[in-house]
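Long-time lurker, first post. I've been practising inverse folding by hand and with some scripts of my own, and I keep getting stuck on stretches where the structure tokens seem ambiguous. Below is the full token string for one chain I'm working on. Before anyone asks, I'm not after the true native sequence, just a reasonable design that respects the backbone. If someone could post their per-position residues I'd love to compare against what I wrote down in my notebook.
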């Protein structure tokens, strides 16, 4: 191509040199046509080469695409084959959950059925208790009590049967869990085996596809070499033809050039003489200009030397500055390397410490949750045990009171020959309503004795004056510390009342809730707050005593004899209510019937033992609550510690995910 372009350029130059020669113009035209055809052939050949190259490249790329598609299909099949294990496990787990839900519904239905049956049996037993009072003969009463005992035993046996059935189901659950673990281990082994097999198959598939791609590229390479060899041979053949044409054209041009050179010699000799004269004149003019330029160059040389010296000095200064900066850069690089090493060391240490703290936090969180579960379990268990013990001893006390009433009836009717009058209300109904029924009876007939015994004279306690200031202070403490005794709707209504009126209504509601409805009960309650509730004090807090009139103490604990702090109010009112409840039960018989009540000594001794046991349980519950509060505070301190901000995974973020 380059040779043909050069030939066409030379031909164009020849044509422009001698345009008058017709033969030269014809030759030039032929040469231009040959050059144009040659360029067209070169373009066509290049186009064919590019198409062949694209075709050859397409064959290898097609094999690569086919191999990739085959590998993708193989991967998809492998993934499905491996995933089938998980799908089967999920399906089995779903079926297990459905079956477990059905079993749970059956258990709930069985519990409900058992509760209905137990409720019916309990109702039958409760109805039989009222009929026992109709039996007057001990043998009949004993037989009926045996029937009641057997009925209660049947109820307990049904509940024990349900418990045993649930225990057997729990044992079956443990065995099912062990079986599930074995199945899961087998599925994991199966999954690992399939993954290993798929890995080996994929490796073989990759090797096979790689060999196919190599074969395709080798075939493509052989075809490309053969095509290139044919193309090179054709190019060499055309080159030989072009060389022959070029040699003939060159010989013709040489002859023309010789003739032209001869003509040029004649013309150039004449032009030379004219040019020589002209150039000599120009030389003289240029010599004058040369002298002027030398002077100018001399001046410029001096200026350049001065500038050179200035630049040299600046270069020296820059070199010194550069060396200084290099030393500084070296020092900074050393410092940077030291800091990087220190940072890496610190980062590794902090990461290790962070991991340790994270593990410690997880361990403490797990312990705290275990402790919460244990606390909830023991709290529920202790509460149920406490209620059972309370109900058991209450039932025992009621039975003994009923036994005493029966003995009192026998003594009155058989020994004394008097008409015995039973209590106005059953002791069981009275124990359920506790103080409410007693309050209603006192309001209906305040002068009548609870048990209406003609042998007992009405007793009216002497009127005692209570200190108004102490009463007001006690009511204020109760309103602030025992506000939970007031109903929620009443508390919302109190918010719309003035402050003094709201406190008065709130204190009245608390007194009603505690069952304090007379001055005697009020004095007993105040006796738990003050040493002497009847000792009067002035409005300013001074005791009305001549020996203490000069003292202006305003602290109720110091001047009024207050023995209870705000933190002990709940405990005091609880003790007061419980004591009043049990005292009222004990007061079924007045002081005149102590001879009859002597038979209760053993029962009361057992009851005292139960109370002490209950007190120990309450103390244990209090200690456990205090430990729970301490653990909660300790956990809050750990969560609020500043070190949590430096952790990669803060505990608060883990709580949010959970």
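-- Answer (accepted) --
I ran through it position by position. Result:
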């Amino acid at each position: 191509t380059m040779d043909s372009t050069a030939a066409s350029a030379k031909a164009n130059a020849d044509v422009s040199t001698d345009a008058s020669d017709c033969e030269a113009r014809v030759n030039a035209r032929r040469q231009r046509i040959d050059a144009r055809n040659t360029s067209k052939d070169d373009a066509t050949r290049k186009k064919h080469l590019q198409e062949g190259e694209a075709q050859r490249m397409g064959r290898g790329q097609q094999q690569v695409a086919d191999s990739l598609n085959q590998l993708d299909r193989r991967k998809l099949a492998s993934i499905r084959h491996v995933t089938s294990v998980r799908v089967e496990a999920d399906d089995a787990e779903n079926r297990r959950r459905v079956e477990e839900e059905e079993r749970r519904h059956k258990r709930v239905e069985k519990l409900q059925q058992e509760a209905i049956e137990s409720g019916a049996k309990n109702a039958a037993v409760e109805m039989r208790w009222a009929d026992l009072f109709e039996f007057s003969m001990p043998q009949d009463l004993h037989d009926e009590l045996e029937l009641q005992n057997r009925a209660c035993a049947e109820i307990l046996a049904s509940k024990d049967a349900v418990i045993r059935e649930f225990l057997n189901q729990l044992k079956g659950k443990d065995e099912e869990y062990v079986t599930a673990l074995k199945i899961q281990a087998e599925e994991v082994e199966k999954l690992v085996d399939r993954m290993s097999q798929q890995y080996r198959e994929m490796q073989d598939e990759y090797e096979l596809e790689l060999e196919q791609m190599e074969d395709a590229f080798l075939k493509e390479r052989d075809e490309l070499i053969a095509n290139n060899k044919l193309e090179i041979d054709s190019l060499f053949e055309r080159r030989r033809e072009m060389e022959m044409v070029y040699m003939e054209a060159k010989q013709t041009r040489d002859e023309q050039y010789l003739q032209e050179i001869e003509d040029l010699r004649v013309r150039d000799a004449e032009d030379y003489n004219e040019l020589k004269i002209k150039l000599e004149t120009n030389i003289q003019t240029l010599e004058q200009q040369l002298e002027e330029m030398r002077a100018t160059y001399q001046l410029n040389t001096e200026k350049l030397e001065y500038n050179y010296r200035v630049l040299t000095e600046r270069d020296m200064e820059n070199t010194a500055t550069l060396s200084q900066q290099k030393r500084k850069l070296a020092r900074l690089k050393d410092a940077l390397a030291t800091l990087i090493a220190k940072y890496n060391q610190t980062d590794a240490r902090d990461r290790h410490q962070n991991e340790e703290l994270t593990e410690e936090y997880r361990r403490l969180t797990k312990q705290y949750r275990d402790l919460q579960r244990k606390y909830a379990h023991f709290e529920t268990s202790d509460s149920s045990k406490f209620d059972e013990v309370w109900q058991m001893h209450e039932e025992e006390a009621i039975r003994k009171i009923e036994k005493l009433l029966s003995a009192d009836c026998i003594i009155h009717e058989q020994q004394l020959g008097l008409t015995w009058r039973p209590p106005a209300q059953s002791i069981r109904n009275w124990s359920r309503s506790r103080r409410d029924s007693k309050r209603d009876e006192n309001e209906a007939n305040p002068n009548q004795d609870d048990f209406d015994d003609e042998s007992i004279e009405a007793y009216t306690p002497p009127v005692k004056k209570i200190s108004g200031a102490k009463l007001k202070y006690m009511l204020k403490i109760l309103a602030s510390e025992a506000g939970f005794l007031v109903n929620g709707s009443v508390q919302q209504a109190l918010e719309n009342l003035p402050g003094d009126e709201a406190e008065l209504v709130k204190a009245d509601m608390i007194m009603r809730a505690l069952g304090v409805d007379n001055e005697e009960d009020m004095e007993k309650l105040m006796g738990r707050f003050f040493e002497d509730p009847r000792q009067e004090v002035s409005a300013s807090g001074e005791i009305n005593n001549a020996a203490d009139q000069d003292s202006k103490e305003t602290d109720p604990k110091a001047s009024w004899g207050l023995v209870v702090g705000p933190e002990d109010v709940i405990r005091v009112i609880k003790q007061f209510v419980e004591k009043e409840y049990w005292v009222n039960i004990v007061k079924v018989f007045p002081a005149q019937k102590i001879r009859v009540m002597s038979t209760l000594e053993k029962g009361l001794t057992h009851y005292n033992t139960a109370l002490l046991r209950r007190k120990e349980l309450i103390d244990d519950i209090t200690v456990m609550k205090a430990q729970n509060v301490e653990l909660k505070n300790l956990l809050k301190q750990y969560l609020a510690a500043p070190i949590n901000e430096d952790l990669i995974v803060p505990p608060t973020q883990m709580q949010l995910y959970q």
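A couple of notes from the structure itself: The CA atoms of residues 365 and 655 lie 10 Å apart. Residues 138-416 form the longest helix (279 residues). Happy to go over any region you disagree with.
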